[in-house]
Structure formats: structure tokens, C-alpha cells
Design goal:
By secondary structure, the chain is α/β, with parallel strands linked by helices. It is built from twelve helices and eleven strands.
Length: about 325
């Protein structure tokens, strides 16, 4: 039955996540290809590792010949050595696993009583979260930069800019533009690394802070909230929009990228599922309809609130203006 296949999907997911957590795919990519050597490298039980490797073969993630394992062609991105590795995103999903375990409790109580926010977790988990955001934004940021005409704008305020993925895309597309990345102290060092690697150090400033408790840098005519509003409750978003309205120049624009739900709250489908991710992982985060976003933006003082792009993969774009 198809419904039973869907129910069993968690097993295959857990198999792959455990392989990623043990970094097995990178080890195999580095020519450590038999169960005994992989067990030694991961300090794990050889029988347990062998069963995991064989299950990964059964899932078409690995291939096996004469007790030697190799990556299936579509699995090479699971190695940290691949130039377009998705391993950080997979590790972030592994971190998400614990919170999703308590979905029943979160649905019953309206919040997860045992949640582990990524900001309260280990440095390793923070790194995987920021790495995951970079994986998600690597190609999407180029698409967003292409869709938006930002030629009138001179200075971007990238709020919660993470590794700088969107700043990089916006600056490369708009040579007249400079940027300020505003993020938590533990994230800014990662931001600096990404910006330096892109050769944009001279056009980017960095400000450490928490948008929930600190004022935002002033003097920019463009602000970006990329995958931010779903982390917040409506009250937190209103407070954030009000801070942005105060910080940017008259005539400035705010760009929001996120899931934007239809009136039924069932489409895009990924957004409906992601709303549950916010239920188990945040105090009040959610995915929002256009009307919900527009109403709060207008309450904060913004005008000309429009949807620039509708999409299925957190690529909906809303823009609004500060007219005076």
C-alpha cells in the first residue's frame, strides 16, 4: 500500500542521516571503502557499520562489489569534499530529527515542550545550520537577484545574513551596491569567511547583533529578510518590520523571501510541512499568508506591498516601500 510506503519513509531517512552523521560518504569518497576501515575511522562497531552500509546500498545511496563500497552517482554530493556538497543541509536535518520526535506533543500542547533551538545548541549545530542555509541559497540567491531590479539601490542591509549568500548574489548582480550583514556574533565570523572567498570584502561591512533585542544599523536604502519571518511570531515580525522601517532611508525598499501560503494554508505543500517544523522548533514561528504579511507591514508603516514572485521552494518574494 502506498500509505505504508509513506509511513516507512522515516526508516530510509534515518539510515541516510546516520551515514551523514558518521561522515561515511566523505570517508568513502576519500577511498576508505570497506566496513572494517570505516568502523575504525568512525570508532564504531564493525557489525553495526556493515549493516548500515548494506542498508545504504539497498537504498541506492551506495554501491557494493566484493565487500568494497562506493558512492552511487547521485550520492556524490553527500561528501564534504564535493564542491557543491549538500552535507551541511543533511546534518541540519539530522539536528532537526530530535525536535520532530516531539511533533505529537507540540500539536497537543501548541508548542514543543522539549525543543532544542539551534541557537542554544552546540557550535557544531550552529555551523551545520548556517551551512545548510548556504546550500539552500546557493542557486536560489542567484535566481532572486535576477528577478529583482535593484539598480536604484545603493546599500543593502542583510538582516540575519548568515554566510552572506544573498549579499554575494546581490552585490555581484549590482555593482553600484554595498552591503551591511547584520547577524549574531557567533555567525558573523562565518559571514566574513564567505564574503572574503567571494572577493567582496571591500564592499561589505559586518555588524554583530540580535534583531530581537538590538536596533538595526541605519543608512541603508534596501533591506532583506531572507528566510527570517517564518522563525518569528506575528508580534515578533511586527516589531522587526518596525525596526526596519525606522532604520532604512525614505524611499527605501524591504525584500522578504519566504514561504508565502495561499488562503487555504495548504499550498505551497512545502510551506504547509514547514509550518510544523516551526511548531516543533520555535516558540511562535509559522508560515504566513500574503494577507497576514501585508497587514503587519502596513501596520509598521510600509506601503506598496506586492508579491513579486510565487514559488514552491521558499522562493516567494514580497517587496514593500518606505515612502517617507
Amino acid at each position: 500500500m502506498e500509505i505504508m510506503n509513506k509511513i516507512r519513509n522515516f526508516m530510509e531517512s534515518r539510515i541516510i542521516l546516520t551515514g551523514a552523521e558518521l561522515d561515511i560518504f566523505t570517508l568513502i569518497d576519500r577511498e576508505i571503502k570497506n566496513a572494517n576501515d570505516i568502523a575504525k575511522k568512525t570508532n564504531a562497531d564493525e557489525r553495526g557499520v556493515t549493516r548500515l552500509l548494506d542498508a545504504l546500498v539497498a537504498c541506492d545511496i551506495l554501491e557494493k562489489k566484493d565487500f568494497v563500497y562506493s558512492l552511487a552517482p547521485e550520492s556524490k554530493h553527500l561528501s564534504s569534499d564535493h564542491p557543491e556538497s549538500v552535507l551541511p543541509m543533511v546534518l541540519h536535518m539530522n539536528d532537526m530529527w530530535d525536535n520532530w520526535t516531539y511533533l505529537t506533543e507540540a500539536v497537543s500542547e501548541g508548542k514543543n515542550p522539549l525543543k532544542v533551538p539551534w541557537t542554544d545548541d552546540t557550535e557544531k549545530n550552529t555551523k551545520s545550520f548556517i551551512g545548510a542555509m548556504h546550500v539552500a541559497g546557493r542557486k536560489l540567491s542567484l535566481k532572486i537577484a535576477e528577478i529583482l531590479d535593484l539598480s536604484p539601490y545603493k546599500k543593502l542591509l542583510d538582516i540575519g545574513g548568515a554566510s552572506g549568500t544573498y549579499t554575494i548574489a546581490f552585490l555581484e548582480k549590482n555593482p553600484q551596491m554595498r552591503s551591511i550583514i547584520f547577524d549574531l556574533p557567533e555567525v558573523i565570523d562565518m559571514s566574513k569567511k564567505g564574503i572574503e572567498e567571494a572577493g567582496l570584502k571591500e564592499r561589505t561591512d559586518f555588524v554583530k547583533g540580535d534583531y530581537n533585542s538590538d536596533e538595526l544599523p541605519e543608512g541603508c536604502d534596501l533591506a532583506l529578510l531572507s528566510a527570517i519571518i517564518h522563525q518569528n511570531s506575528p508580534r515578533e515580525n511586527l516589531e522587526l518590520y518596525s525596526k526596519i522601517y525606522k532604520a532604512i532611508k525614505p524611499g527605501g525598499m524591504l525584500v522578504i523571501r519566504d514561504h508565502i501560503m495561499d488562503k487555504t494554508r495548504t499550498s505551497p505543500p512545502d510551506g504547509a510541512v514547514f509550518a510544523l517544523n516551526m511548531l516543533v522548533a520555535t516558540n511562535g514561528g509559522d508560515t504566513y499568508t500574503f494577507d497576514e504579511v501585508r497587514d503587519l507591514l502596513e501596520t509598521a508603516g510600509f506601503s506598496d506591498v506586492i508579491i513579486v514572485n510565487k514559488g514552491e521552494n521558499m522562493d516567494c518574494i514580497i517587496t514593500c516601500k518606505k515612502l517617507s
